[in-house]
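In practice, a research group might receive sequence data for several interacting partners and want a quick structural hypothesis before committing to experiments. The following worked case mirrors that situation: the sequences arrive first, and a predicted assembly follows.
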Amino acid sequence: MLTRNSRWLLIALALTALVIALVPLPATLAQPADRHFRIEASSFEYTPPVIAVNPGDRVTLELVSTDYVHGLYIDGYDLDLTADPGQTARLTFIADKPGAFRFRCSVTCGPLHPFMIGKLNVGVNWLLWRAAGLAVLAATAIAIPRNRATFKDRLRGALSPRPRGPLRVTARTRLESINNCK
Amino acid sequence: MTRFDLTTLPLVKPLLKSRWPQFVIQSIALGGFIFAIFAGLVGTPVGNHNFSIVFVWIAWWALLMLVAVPIFGRGWCSICPIPLPGEWLQRGAALAPQGHGLGLGWRWPNRLRNIWLQNGAFTLVALFSAVVLTQPSVTAIVLAAFLFVALGASLIFERRAFCRYLCPVGGFIGLYSQVAPLEVRVKDTAVCAAHTEKTCYTGNADGYGCPWQVFPGGLVKNTYCGTCVECLRTCPHDNVAINLRPPGADLLRPTGRKLDEAFKAFIMLGSAMAYSAVMLGPWGGIKSAAYSVGSVAWFGYALVFLAFIFGILPGLFLLAVSLGELPASRRPTRKAFISFAYTLVPLGLTAWIAFSLSFVFANISYLWPALSDPLGWGWNLFGTAGVGWTPYLANALPTLQAIVLIGGLIWASATARQIAVELKGGLQQALPVIVFCFAVTLGLLWLLVG
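A structural hypothesis for the assembly, expressed as tokens:
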């Protein structure tokens, strides 16, 4: 049973959750710029493994493979490029979607190929911050006291003598004990 | 809590009582399992073009973690092909009971009647997972080992000893089956108590005694019920129900909570976090260390992995439980530690779902070429050999993962709160555990969405 205060608190938390989840956030104030990255691909990693740009940046990726043929596919942007060993592949795009995006090898290159992954960060990863905010709210909502009398009840329970009677054995407890003994 | 008996629906009971539907599905699964071993041994060594890797670690894993466990609990165990050859030999029959089978029928040792061996088996597979998940020949050897150990266990011990005490997969399916919205239970325990023959445990002409060594009349949790529905077949009083129930109902039952299951929860949650970092993170050095089995780097990786799941995670959790006991000036009890560990069941399951979403949808498109060319020999059986790799749902996955993880946090926190009430502790006792779950969720969000 929720108290009136708890109920209002829950409503406030629900409204805050909606705000955190849905309210559009301002874009970054940084001016768009040309960004160049040279990414070395080798079995089974990218160097550097994480690249960060600002929303609106014109990004040029140079993919250089140092051993086998490797690819680079960017989730969310649906862009793909492939580099032969010793050769450089280039790709230019506008980073117009903010967030964190995995890039992964798109050419089968060996056993750990499915796990050859890097990360492109475009501005602030608002999804992560929104999710973290919602997690805080969720944990807070669960922790709201449900019943104003809980403490009093506990105190009264602690002070009053406990009734001691014979252990009640029902068909259920008897049958449960069979599985516990096995 | 309300329950709905699915066997009251038309066709459900006849379909479940008949052995044929289950037998047909199991036989298909066994065929696929043996073919996966064959493909792993003779097919291409390129994992994502080999049936064994694509169908076992991508298709089956997706089916298991995203559908079977969350919805059907141990549903997979009811059609699992691994124990079948041994069970058929043990029974001397593939269908209804007839004649005598082979085997010594020994009772499983009392000291090992727990899931510690399953915890060890899973940890062992997890330590070598970077190789097992990517090398077809190693996958084939592991699958064949499962088959032979299950066969040996059936010939030496009674009933399904392998499934109950050894299977590394069965251990975590059992733990997570507690959250499933389905259960096999008796309708009226008084009927079982009065039924002197206990045919659900001993068997009769209509079916076998419970292969999972569980007495259905005393069943209160899904953990060790393999949902094989033998009890539905053998009960002469029509007293067995397949219930639809509120998800997670078993988590709030205080009976039957044990330290081995608590550690299974730590192992699974820790593994999900470790896999999210190793497999899906951008750190190539860790991937190489996990893959180079036997090297110094691998030993370092193994040490950190073991320390994390057996030391750091349980240690931090114990600290949280201890903090919860501070206001009441109590020392943390073994009971409180074990009881609160069950809050990690929904948290761990959602962590695995979030991990699997990313892994499965990025790689499931390998299924189509593997279907047409399962051995990587250049076949094109169904015209799909040329279908290229495409990650599915790449735009939506991070949001979906965040929703799943937050859902897990809510579920785990609510469970912690209810367990605290059950332990007569209240919110103060649950709060540090909720904070622990929150910190784990933040870590997973950072690893998977960040």
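Before designing any experiment, note the following. The mean pLDDT of chain B is 95. The CA atoms of residues 61 and 356 of chain B lie 8 Å apart.
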